[in-house]
Please model this.
Amino acid sequence: QQQVKQSPQSLIVQKGGISIINCAYENTAFDYFPWYQQFPGKGPALLIAIRPDVSEKKEGRFTISFNKSAKQFSLHIMDSQPGDSATYFCAVLNYGGSQGNLIFGKGTKLSVKP
Amino acid sequence: GAGVSQSPSNKVTEKGKDVELRCDPISGHTALYWYRQSLGQGLEFLIYFQGNSAPDKSGLPSDRFSAERTGGSVSTLTIQRTQQEDSAVYLCASSARTGGLSGELFFGEGSRLTVL
Model:
């Protein structure tokens, strides 16, 4: 059973456009929602994260929107640049739970065309 | 170096052989994770070590997979009698604590395993 569903699988955006990636989860015990960015040949790296006490978090061109009632969260990349081309993973964690590992979505491959 | 170090970066082996993959976490990080990344399958959790606690092995796909962490630092993932479906990139990550205050995992660059 997939605990976090990520879409789309791939995304092509023109330079300057907005990239939107969505994730949905089932378990209401999850209370930490990070996004990781992975470039080819590299390990994933934390991009931005949110806790459920806020509905939005913005860091530069990257914004997480969180909808607790719908159990969904999304990553918005404003003014997308070719350097943003990478694979993006959402993840969930029950921070106060006994399971310490992040559960990842299947990833979205983003290509930003110049 | 300051980051998570993994070796080998690439490993090609024949079906049925055993392989060992090594992870050297960031100094002082108490939590260590192994994930497997297959094409189109995202990041699959394998095993998690936290301090001196018993490891969480709930993600290991079969009894051919095992891992140990010596002295609370270096970890080795062992795959016995490798199969072609074991071909993947094996990623190691470490964290300052369970999930970390920020939940940040620091990943290595991975070990790419190819089973012929």
